[in-house]
Amino acid sequence: MPVTLLPASAAAFAPRGTCNVVLNSKVEPWLTATLKRINRIKRPLNSVPQHQRCLTETLSAPTAIWTLCSIMLPKAPDSELRRDDNPLIEALFNYQLLHIEAYVVHVDMVSQNEVAFKLAQDTIDSLIEYHKEIFSVDASANTWNWSEKETQLKKLQEDFVQAINKFVFRTVATALEGLEEDGGGELLSGGADEVKSQIMNLFLPLLPPPPRAPEIIRPTPILPSSTGPETWWPSAIQSHAQFLPSSPSTTSSVDSNPHMWTSLSMDEFQLPSPAPSYSQPYSSACYSTPEYYSTPMTCASMTCAPMTSTPIFPQLPMPSMLAQQCSSSAGFDGFGGGFAWDRYNEYTMPFVGTTM
Q1: Cα dist. 110→25, 60, 153 in Å?
Q2: How far is CA 257 from CA 241, 245, 247, 266, 272, in A?
């Protein structure tokens, strides 16, 4: 969309000047009919310059004030409004009708085919007063207090003053069909609603600062800051050592000397090795009588003797090993030196508590 150049009279805080009119090489029939309707003195309208001169003089007259729309605004802040059960009485005493008046500053029927309106000074002053005395008071009352509230409210008022003075309403050029004899007029075809919407959008709300993010309280760590073995590992060993036996004896499962474990270091602390298996490595030597035949143990010797790493029962060979090491002459009479079946009680398992 090309940039539209407006005259100097359309700038903010600029006084009213002569209306700038630019017509096409061929005048539209509706414009000729409108100018003939409003002219009290019949003027010739046979050329483009005649149309341009007549339109410029009409729109630049001091009485050429257009009513763009009407806005109903409260007369006082909300806390000072009159309360009544009858809504008609409330409307009469609490609200006022403000007419938005403007004048034409620019007519372009060549490139943009539009007409531009600038607000009249009386309308600008009325809107500024309403924003300061009523709108700002209600906005301040409806927001919570913070340190920079007054500064932000003052800046909001200053921004509105700048915006309302810069406001220029643009619409299609056919809006000039509502032109009257004195140069004023009203917008047709729903243009008033568009003006009202644009003006009300200039009343910006007072926004408080966003809330601060809540501080996250981190929980205290369970483990200490240092996880070295010199800080927590000895204490763990000491607490665990209270449940370990002080000796491999079967008569006591409680540590007889609990202070001994606290003096141990990691290098000195070792768990007892498991008992060796009851199996015996293979040997090619023949079995002798003293190796496999010994005096049986009694029940009393089992309960009184302390437990050691030496197995209680003699290590017996597997049957396959006996078959490889003994000759085929072994029979029921004995192994090597002979086996007497009348002495079998001496080689039975020592689990008998009493003598039969």
Answers
A1: 8, 20, 44
A2: 11, 10, 10, 18, 17
pLDDT in tens, 48-89: 999 999 999 999 999 999 999 999 999 999 999 988 899 888
pTM higher than the cut 0.70: no
Q: By mean pLDDT, which of 123-127, 131-135, 220-224, 340-344 is the weakest?
A: 340-344
CA 182, 186, 191: angle at the middle one, nearest 5?
A: 155
What is the SS3 assignment for 54? helix
**Tokens matching residue 85:** 């059960």
> Coil, strand or helix: which one is 320?
helix
Q: CA-CA distance, 300 to 297, in Å (whole number)? A: 8
Contact 89, 4 (CB under 8 A): no
Helix axes of 149-166 and 121-130: crossing angle, nearest 10 degrees: 160
Closest by Cα among 74, 39, 42 to 57: 39
Q: What is the pLDDT of residues 328-356, one digit of tens each?
A: 444 444 444 555 555 555 555 555 444 44
Rounded CA Rg of the chain: 57
The two tokens of residue 251 are 């008569």
Give CA angle at 335 (331, 336), nearest 5°.
115
What SS3 class is residue 215? coil
CA 150, 155, 161, 167 dihedral sign is: negative
